[in-house]
Give the backbone structure.
Amino acid sequence: MSSPSGHGVGLPLLPDGACGERADAARNRQLLLAAAKSLIDDHGAAAVTMDAVARSAGVGKGTVFRRFGNRNGLMMALLDHSERELQQSLLSGPPPLGPGADPLDRLIAYGRARLKMTVAHLDILLEASSDDPDRLSHPVWAMSTRHVHHLLTELGYRGRLATAAVAIQAPLEAVAVRHQLDVVGLDAAEIADDWEQMIRVLAAGIG
């Protein structure tokens, strides 16, 4: 599998939680996750309740509980699903998120996509990060960091890539996003615009 930047460095997708399921169970899982994602897109994460997902998917509430156990299980499954979708988009999706676009455009598209995902799953990500002092070594962030490394290299960045990649992604982490939303008082669009401005200033200074 090719790398996000097209250089042939393998970036395997995260394991699919539906692997090993019967076909009908896998279809039901995808139906429920699609319903939950639609609720987040339309009304925010707070709208994702077991009742609301069941109604949106046209199934009984018991089906949702049997599949995911509780709301936390549903949200974790949705987070995993969203991460796989983002990875797939980086690897082979349409530009600017996928291959074929200018590296600056790809980097900005990645940051905006990552921020959107962080906001959508903020509560779950905050809980998970509090229990993981080495969260930057998690496969999700390792994949993202490799992607940022490649794009910085394509942009001609000559500094230490590891430091730059952490600095670039820091405002997109859950704890930083929560601070910007709740303490600084920004909304998600303002965070995204400020982050993009920072990246453009960085890119202008490369060379």
Summary: The chain is about 70% helix and 0% strand.
